[in-house]
Fold this protein.
Amino acid sequence: MDKLEKVYKEKIYDFQSEVSNSVWTNISASLDQNKRNRRIIVFMIILTVLILLISGVYYFILSSNKSVTPKNEKTSILAVTDNSGSFKDISTPNVEIAEIEENQINGQSKDNNSDQKDVSYLFSNLGSSGLFSSKELLFPEESKINTNNSSAISEIENIPMLPFEFNTIQGGKTNKTKYLSNNNSESQTVYHRRKGILDDCFPSKINSWLLEAYASPLYGAKSLKGDNEVLKDSRKNSENPLLSYSTGLRIGYNYKGAVLKTGFDFTSINEKFRIILKNVISTQTIITIDTIKHSDGTFTITRDTTIKEIYGEEDIKKFNSYRMLGIPLIFGYELKYQRHSFGLNAGVIINMLLRKSGSILNKDGKITNLEDKGDEVFMNRTGASLYSSLFYAYSINDQFAVFAEPVFTYSLFPITKKEYDLKQKYFTYGISFGGRYLF
Amino acid sequence: MQLFDKYKKSMKSLCLRYLGDNEEADDVLQEGFILMFEKLNSYKFEGSFEGWIRRIMTNICLKHLIEKKKFRIENIEDTTDFKEEYIDIESDLTTQELMNGLMKLPYGYRTVFNMYVIEGYSHKEIGEKLKIEESSSRSQLAKAKVFLRKILKDRDFI
């Protein structure tokens, strides 16, 4: 180590410089903010787990069994109505059945003939199918209508009855009526499912919980408003949109077509920052060493150091990103036709966190780094955005569907702070693609 | 806050030595202490605590310099090897004057000088951190010292 190095090491290593009072204030504020952000994230995670737990408890423990699971593979409809409205016992095709009076539909049999058992019915309008009339009877296990066909009775008795509701894929509005047996000793709700016909129907999920996961490519159109035209122009010229995206998880409930959803949405609005700095100076050091030999044999070494300043341009490119975590609250209405669902949604996304990275120009034309000074310009939470979408889903089976959803969002509040010269907002549009699980 | 009060002045000097600007040094100092507090649990009691903080601060200064300033250090072979006689000026100068002189160096020279002479990194470590050859680090140090001597000799830091 030469003398210069020694002097610097000894004197400069522990050199003390004064620190501005605002440094600790900023450190303390930042640490508090980080702590708050961590608490919010932990809260979100706990909320998600609670929602999933409650849903799981409801599904597995509290909800009744909605699926039809006959122990016996063989099920049969014992009677149908033909186009004339009379009922025909198909288990014994040659036996005619007396017409059932209308007031029996609600489960109260008028006829207490001892040869007849009490009858309860489920009626549903299945629409015009070509196979059935507009009404179809489903008979309970105790059914017997003016027939002495004991084999039909025993066939019915072997089939356990479980309640369910169904939709028909053949269109038409479905009315379901729970009915009670007129059996005096107990009342039960029973249905009878026709094999081979109703197999094409999905067990009803009209009232059901749903879980959705999605991802969306987006375009973020930025709006910059304010009186500082110079700053506005410089920012518009230096920042350009790139492909943005969002992804999320939603849980919701569908009540007769009306849908309410919430969950988490993560959106990243991406931009390219580019500026060419002119008159950038770099230095070049040129050291010239001359050796002069004297007549007496000695040498003199001279050294000349020249510093050259070189002017040029610097092309600076950065990737800007505004990443937002929000909670959507969405209301919608869906119509289902066979395997297709169409819907309209509207609501809000409440922003919980905004993280920014990259660079922007400040009012002096200098580059401001968003990781360091972004909090001076942008909020950490940006309020709410309006959300609207069209919805199309295709049901793969009674539980899973895939969907596409053109989506539009608009920031209600600027993401910049009040003190900043400009108000920066975003309007995003894109298409969400995702999957839905019904339970 | 006690930790901050104990180390703030020496760390501010460190940041000032690398960045050369008081405001930037405050910003980086802030960032360094925030990181230090967040990573406090990861301190493994290997080496001195001050040494650990110095390493954090140095890394943040280097990151700031590389990302923001984009200074370039050329990989040049240094073939100069000679004996010189220089006027002994260093011992006449106050600490503040030495500091001022150091701050006059261009970023590249100053960074290597700081890392080698003050922080005690080897040329190999400097090469790894700045992604340059070891020989370039040596060359930059030699040039830095020449440049610095000229500044100090000419009192070109006032």
